[in-house]
Amino acid sequence: xxxxxxxxxxxxxxxxxxxxxxxxxxxxxxxxxxxxxxxxxxxxxxxxxxxxxxxxxxxxxxxxxxxxxxxxxxxxxxxxxxxxxxxxxxxxxxxxxxxxxxxxxxxxxxxxxxxxxxxxxxxxxxxxxxxxxxxxxxxxxxxxxxxxxxxx
Length: 152
What we know:
With 152 residues, the protein is of the alpha+beta class. It has one domain. The protein is 53% helix and 11% strand. It contains six helices and four strands. It has helices spanning 3-14, 17-27, 70-85, 91-106, 114-119, 133-151, and strands at 31-34, 40-43, 54-57, 60-63. A four-stranded mixed β-sheet has the order 1-2-4-3. A hairpin with a 2-residue loop joins strand 3 and strand 4. The longest helix is centred in the C-terminal third of the chain and has 19 residues, at 133-151. The protein starts with a helix and ends with a helix.
């Protein structure tokens, strides 16, 4: 295993996020097995929350499915790295705040969520939803105002 992946594994163990992931997977009745790059994959998760078909906690990727497509696995693996960089389980409230901002801007929890964008929107099955029309208009007014001021 590459040094960066080993470091991610150790940091997520130390910050408690992998243990939290294993606990959530167990609570949801998922079958957990070691997977690639120091990750665990929990399949057949049965709890209704979160509603996403797959999610990550530390080095644990959990899904309601029997397996994951490679692009979704890569997307969730990037989230595992985010857990290592964002202080472990502290990423959960940060992620929820980013999802709320995304919802406010677009009406979609993932489109403008910084964590989803950095994990690869398309790989995670997300689309790049445009800003809400009222926000788009306000942005255009600000840009036009700056352009007019610079022209003077």
